[in-house]
Design goal:
Elements lengths: L9 H4 L3 H9 L7 H11 L4 E4 L6 H13 L12 E4 L3 H17 L4 E4 L6 H9 L3 E4 L1 H9 L10 E5 L1 H4 L5 H10 L5 E6 L7 H7 L4 E4 L10 E8 L5 H9 L4 E5 L3 H13 L4 E4 L5 H13 L4 E4 L12 E6 L6 H8 L9 E7 L4 H10 L5 E5 L5 H6 L22 H16 L13 H18 L1 H4 L9 H22 L9 H5 L3
Parallel strand pairs: 1-6, 1-7, 2-4, 2-5, 3-4, 5-6, 8-13, 8-14, 9-11, 9-12, 10-11, 12-13
This protein binds adenosine-5'-triphosphate and magnesium ion.
The site of adenosine-5'-triphosphate has 21 residues, from helix 4.
Family: Belongs to the DEAD box helicase family.
Keywords: ATP-binding, Helicase, Hydrolase, Nucleotide-binding
Protein name: DEAD/DEAH box helicase
Length: about 500
């Protein structure tokens, strides 16, 4: 096991200059610990087992060697990709492809995603044309292989992202079959923020003399992440507390246990004036894509999701993760929570807990190596909520307009939203972007514009005030919170964009 702190640059680790330049364009100049630890081995072609915290840059840790090793080689033959990346969800596959695209383009490599829920025609065509790198969820790839559209016999590099999850019972048989179809002796890399015994079976069978790198200890959580448990007086307080937290500036990800729970909660939040989208396995792929786009663009400030969004998904500037239902096990807690405080930014994690859940929550935070601050909260007015999610509450009549039929916005929902929060803490209607009587579309736009603007400032992670200046209570809370955060990630992040994470933001934290 190696514990390497990054102190060098990508070129010195052996990353080709053109790839280094692409990273530099994105403000990425100093390797994170997991990158510094694994790249020398992975670039040489060794099998790698790598663990690094959530948000610590594992994606580039496997993409860089994969592209570097394929570059300059022979073009892929029809239906015979030269590299394979396997990940558990369609969203993650798509996200990895986005990170890969500029690197692959500079090396003249082609890519093809393969996952279910969409027509297979374009995927089959891509494979037939000859694709260098296939990024896939296991199920559809197996389908296409069985139909004769793809063979893994020419694969030189295989990556399992979220490797421990891919070794879970549901995935393991398919993952084994896929790995069995790749050539013996080809390079294999397994990455996750949590590597436990579950992956032993894959390690023993498929990795040869692997370089094992744990860039941090399993029991050392992301240091810029604040953990809180809110002990609710009753289950009826769950929604008002969520509305309060989620109507603060910035992006929020809320996790529920069930698909139905995610859908219902997103609907309730929208009805109450919090622009929200849901993400779970009951949605069509089109709806999943639309909803994630709305969350990325800021049109919806809250994502309500099942554990489908727990692994690997990166959205810039998620300030707050709320476990509306506590997860069932500690790994899920770590991965869900890891949607915030990524790449050196600060973030807050809140678990809502009822009396019946006290024992479970204690067990899972202990297993996760987290010491949360637990506070009894008797409703939405509790002052801690303004500290956890600082800034003015903004409610948008009708919530996320993309989900609302035309004409179903405005007065009625606005009235409900007002009653639920904005007025309560603002000390006046002036701060709320849209009163109950506003015309639906216009109101919604104004509200979303406000949120977007504040998000873009990166106020929460860079020590700027999130408050808009009106409403003394909100501004005071915002300033206080941000001062606290500013001393950590704000100082590290330095420049204007949250994407430009400096080296200090990674290495300075440990
Ligand atoms: N060396 C670096 N310096 C600064 N930012 C980086 C660096 N490497 C990656 N990043 C950025 O950090 C963010 C998180 O990276 P990534 O998604 O790869 O994390 P991860 O370790 O895979 O997390 P998870 O365990 O949640 O999947 C991305 O926005 C990425 O562009
Ligand atoms: Mg990842």
């Amino acid at each position: 096991m190696n514990n390497v702190t990054s102190s060098t640059d990508f070129g010195a680790l052996g990353v080709p200059a053109d790839l280094v330049a692409i990273l530099a364009d994105r403000g990425i100049t100093t390797p994170s610990p997991i990158q510094a630890a694994t790249l020398p081995d992975s670039l040489r072609g060794r099998d790698v087992l790598g663990r690094g915290r959530t948000g610590s840059g594992k994606t580039y840790a496997f993409l860089l060697p994969l592209v570097a090793r394929l570059a300059g080689g022979r073009r892929a033959a029809a239906k015979s990709p030269r590299a394979l990346i396997v990940a558990p969800t369609r969203e993650l596959v798509g996200q990895i492809e986005q990170a890969l695209a500029p690197l692959a383009a500079s090396a003249g490599l082609t890519t093809q995603t393969v996952f279910g829920g969409v027509g297979q025609g374009p995927q089959v065509n891509g494979l037939r044309r000859g694709t260098d790198i296939v990024l896939a969820c296991p199920g559809r790839l197996e389908d296409l292989i069985q139909q004769g559209h793809c063979s893994l016999g020419s694969v030189q590099v295989t990556v399992l992202d979220e490797a421990d999850h891919m070794a879970d019972l549901g995935f393991l048989p398919a993952v084994k079959r896929l790995l069995d179809a790749t050539p013996r002796g080809s390079q294999r890399m397994l990455f996750s923020a949590t590597l436990d015994n579950a992956i032993d079976v894959l390690v023993k069978r498929y990795l040869s003399d692997p370089a094992v790198h744990e860039a941090d200890s399993a029991q050392s959580p992301v240091s810029t992440m604040d953990h809180h448990v809110l002990h609710l007086g009753g289950r009826d307080q769950r929604l008002p507390v969520l509305i309060d937290l989620a109507s603060a500036p910035g992006r929020t990800v809320v996790f529920t246990r069930t698909k139905h729970g995610a859908k219902a909660l997103a609907r309730q939040l929208n009805k109450s004036g919090v622009p929200a989208v849901d993400l779970h396995g009951n949605l069509s792929q089109g709806a999943r894509t639309r909803n994630m786009d709305a969350f990325h663009s800021g049109k919806a400030s809250t994502l309500v999701a099942t554990d489908i969004a727990a692994r690997g998904i990166h959205v810039d500037d998620v300030a707050l993760v709320v476990h509306a239902d506590p997860p069932t096990e500690h790994k899920a807690y770590l991965h869900r929570s890891g949607r915030t405080a990524r790449a050196g930014a600060a973030g807050t994690v809140v678990t809502l807990m009822t009396d019946e859940q006290v024992r479970d929550v204690r067990a899972l935070t202990r297993a996760a190596g987290i010491k949360p601050q637990t506070t009894k909260v008797d409703g939405a007015g509790h002052p801690l909520l303004a500290d956890l999610a600082p800034g003015d509450r903004v409610l948008v009549p009708g919530g996320y307009v993309g989900e609302q039929p035309a004409g179903n916005q405005g007065g009625g929902n606005g009235g409900q939203g007002g009653g639920n929060g904005g007025g309560r803490r603002s000390g006046g209607g002036g701060r709320r972007r849209s009163g109950g009587g506003g015309q639906g579309g216009a109101s919604a736009q104004a509200g979303q514009g406000g949120r977007g603007g504040r998000g873009a400032q990166g106020g929460r992670s860079q020590g700027q005030s999130a408050g808009s200046g009106s409403g003394g209570g909100g501004t005071g809370n915002g300033g206080g919170r941000n001062r606290r955060r500013g001393s950590g990630a704000g100082a590290a992040a330095g420049s204007g964009s949250n994407r430009n994470h400096s080296a200090a933001s990674f290495s300075g934290r440990r």
